[in-house]
Amino acid sequence: MEKHYTNIEIKELPKSEIEIVGEIEASFLLECFESVLESMSKNAEFPGFRKGKVPKEILIQRVGELSILEEAAHTALDLEYPKIIVEKKIQFIGRPRIQITKLAKGNPLGFIVRMSVVPIFSLPLYKTIAKQEIAKEENLDVTEKEVEDVLLEMQKHQAHLKLHEGGAEHDHTKPKIEEKDWSVVDDAFAQSMGDFKNLLDLKEKIRENLGTEKRNRTKEKKRTAIMETILSETKIDTPQVLIESELEKMLLEFKSDIERAGLSYADYLKTAQKTEGQIRQEWTETAEKKAKAHLVISKIADEERILPDEEKVRGETEKILMMYTDADPVRARAYVAMILSNEKVFEFLENQK
Asked: How many Å apart are CA 105 and CA 273, to the nearest integer?
């Protein structure tokens, strides 16, 4: 791979950013200048000349040598800075920011490229942390009182529906629901609640559902505890670009929730007496924590060589593209792969017993 850059220096900046300072050879800049000029001349149309037949000297005079040189500089950089990234094995995140520092025909092109990079960090003993959290005992038994509490709510709900039959749900002239209005909890009551054989069958279904809810809550609680401990013991200089990305996701979700509630985002800001800038500031800490968690999960996946099932990735991506026909297939696939990979990482941690 032929390269045309020289005097490369890489400086580390805060928030996992780097700055690449260097020069592009004057001879290569001249090649790019001629290439840009050639491309312009093919499409140029000036009075007295046929399209594509405008002499280069006149084109330079009309367009301006500096404008063409600037275009040549961007062309040269677009061709060369990716080679630097490959050569130096730089894992960058987001879009690089390119600045031209020196530009003159016949001289090397000076430039600075700033970019966020994947931070280098060490993981704590995540398997041990997971094992300790998983070992903590949780009471998953469903008590008789919990079942009775659900039955009580069902009684109240049924009485409420009977009282407001006919659509008068908000008719405050109706008498208040009292215990005497509740149905007796027996086999008939159970059958009125759905496809249940008798009261015993209803109670068993309630117990089963409560057990599932407890297991799910416990699972989420343990996952949260594992990640909180790992994050507290991991030092990362989180890239600002990832924090901003998380903030954007949070804001989009928040705006969507507001709109689903029948409000406008502008009205919300007015009522709350806040600006979007204030909201972003308030949420920055949470966004940074989320970004840090993504980095940690990704590194655990790399360490343990955890990969999502390709068939599942393909299937879930197809579902998204069917629901959202204007979605970008590449981004949709990356999103699905990340979600499935994260799930496999948590399953791995949960199995540290």
From this structure: 55
What's the half-sphere exposure (Cβ side, CA atoms, 13 Å) at 212?
6
Nearest of 57, 59, 98, 55 to residue 75 by alpha carbon:
98
Tokens 């009309």 belong to 62
pLDDT for 331 equals 86
Half-sphere exposure of 185 (CA within 13 A, CB side): 17
Q: With contact defined as beta carbons under 8 Å apart, do 134 and 352 qualify?
A: yes
Strand arrangement of the beta sheet that strand 17-24 belongs to: 5-13, 17-24, 109-117, 92-102
199-232 helix and 329-350 helix, angle to the nearest 10 degrees: 100
Taking the C-alpha atoms of residue 1 and residue 32, their distance in angstroms, rounded to an integer, is 17
Q: Which domains does the chain have, with CATH numbers?
A: 5-117 (3.30.70.1050), 120-235 (no CATH)
> Is there a contact between 242 and 295 (Cβ–Cβ < 8 Å)?
yes
Per cent of the chain over pLDDT 90 is: 71
Secondary structure of residue 5 in the 3-state scheme: strand
Tell me what pLDDT residue 160 has. 81
Dihedral over Cα of 299, 305, 309, 314: its sign: positive
